[in-house]
C-alpha cells in the first residue's frame, strides 16, 4: 500500500512538472514572461503587443499563466495589471534562459548592446556591469566563487558602505550566482543582488526607464563604481 501511495505521489509530481513545462513551451507566453522579467506590472494590451498576438489570444495566455501561478493579476481602477508571481518564478525563468543559451547551437549574440551592458533582471542587475561586479566581489573575497555565500569580510565591507543586508530575513536564497544569459557568466542574484540594485537606485547611481529593462549609470554612479568596486563603466 505504501508503495502504491508513493507511486501516486510521484505520478502527481510528474504531471505537475509537465504542466509547468507546458506553460513555458508556448513562444507567445515565453515572450510575455520575458517582458515581465523587468519587475514591473504590465497591462494585457502591452503584453499582447510584446507577444505579437491579438487581445483575445493574449487574454487566453494570461489566464493560463495565472492558473498555473506564474503570473498574478492586479485590478487598478478600470485596468488590470499583470506581474510575475514572485522571485521563485523569476529565478526559474532566469535559469531557464541560461540553460537555453548553453544548450543552443553557438551563434552570434544579437542582444542590443545597451541591454548587454546593463539591464534589470526582475529585481537585480544583469549584463556586463553585473558580471564585472560579481567578479569583483569574488576577487576581493567578499563572495565565494560559486556566488552562494557572502563572506564575513564581504558583510563587513558592504555594511561599512551603508548597504543594509537582510541576512536570513527571507525564505529566498540570500545569495546565488545567476548565469547571465547574454554574457554566459555569473552575476549576483538572490536577496544580495536585489539589495545591491535597490541601493544603487537609492544612491542615484543608476536610472531606469518605464517599460524598459535598460539601466543607465549616472555620472555619479560611474565614478562610484570605479572608486568603490574598481569597475570602469563606459558611458
Oligomer: single chain
Low-confidence stretches: none
H-E string: HHEHHEEHHEEHHEEHEEH
Strand order of the largest sheet: 1-3-2
Q: How many beta-strand segments?
A: 9
Protein name: ArsR family transcriptional regulator
Organism: Citrobacter murliniae
Pfam family, one: HTH_5
Domain HTH arsR-type: 9-104
Overview of this protein structure:
- The chain is α+β, with helices and mostly antiparallel strands and 235 residues long.
- It contains 10 helices and 9 strands.
- It has helices spanning 2-25, 27-35, 44-51, 55-67, 87-103, 113-117, 128-139, 152-160, 190-202, 219-229, and strands at residues 42-43, 71-76, 79-84, 119-121, 124-126, 176-179, 186-189, 206-208, 215-217.
- β4 and β5 form a beta hairpin.
- The radius of gyration is 20 Å and the shape is globular.
- Residues 9-104 form the HTH arsR-type domain.
- InterPro entries: ArsR-like_HTH (IPR011991), HTH_ArsR_DNA-bd_dom (IPR001845), HTH_Metal-responsive_Reg (IPR052543), WH-like_DNA-bd_sf (IPR036388), WH_DNA-bd_sf (IPR036390).
- It comes from Citrobacter murliniae.
- This is ArsR family transcriptional regulator.
Question: What is the topological layout?
Answer:
Layout: H1 2-25, H2 27-35, E1 42-43, H3 44-51, H4 55-67, E2 71-76, E3 79-84, H5 87-103, H6 113-117, E4 119-121, E5 124-126, H7 128-139, H8 152-160, E6 176-179, E7 186-189, H9 190-202, E8 206-208, E9 215-217, H10 219-229
Antiparallel strand pairs: 1-3, 2-3, 4-5, 6-7, 8-9
Helix pairs in contact: 2-3, 3-4
Amino acid at each position: 500500500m505504501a508503495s502504491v501511495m508513493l507511486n501516486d505521489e510521484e505520478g502527481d509530481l510528474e504531471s505537475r512538472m509537465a504542466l509547468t513545462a507546458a506553460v513555458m513551451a508556448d513562444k507567445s507566453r515565453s515572450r510575455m514572461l520575458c517582458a515581465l522579467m523587468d519587475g514591473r506590472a504590465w497591462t494585457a494590451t502591452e503584453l499582447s503587443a510584446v507577444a505579437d498576438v491579438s487581445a483575445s489570444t493574449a487574454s487566453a495566455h494570461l489566464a493560463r499563466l495565472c492558473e498555473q501561478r506564474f503570473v498574478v493579476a492586479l485590478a487598478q481602477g478600470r485596468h488590470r495589471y499583470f506581474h510575475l508571481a514572485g522571485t521563485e518564478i523569476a529565478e526559474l525563468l532566469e535559469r531557464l534562459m541560461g540553460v537555453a543559451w548553453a544548450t543552443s547551437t553557438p551563434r552570434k549574440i544579437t542582444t542590443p548592446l545597451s541591454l548587454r551592458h546593463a539591464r534589470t533582471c526582475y529585481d537585480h542587475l544583469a549584463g556586463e556591469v553585473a558580471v564585472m561586479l560579481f567578479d569583483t566581489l569574488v576577487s576581493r573575497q567578499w563572495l565565494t566563487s560559486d556566488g552562494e555565500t557572502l563572506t564575513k569580510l564581504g558583510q563587513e565591507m558592504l555594511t561599512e558602505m551603508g548597504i543594509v543586508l537582510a541576512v536570513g530575513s527571507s525564505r529566498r536564497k540570500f545569495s546565488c550566482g545567476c548565469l547571465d544569459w547574454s554574457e554566459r557568466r555569473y552575476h549576483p542574484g538572490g536577496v544580495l543582488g536585489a539589495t545591491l540594485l535597490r541601493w544603487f537606485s537609492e544612491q542615484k547611481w543608476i536610472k531606469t526607464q518605464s517599460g524598459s529593462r535598460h539601466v543607465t549609470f549616472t555620472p555619479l554612479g560611474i565614478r562610484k563604481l570605479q572608486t568603490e568596486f574598481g569597475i570602469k563603466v563606459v558611458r
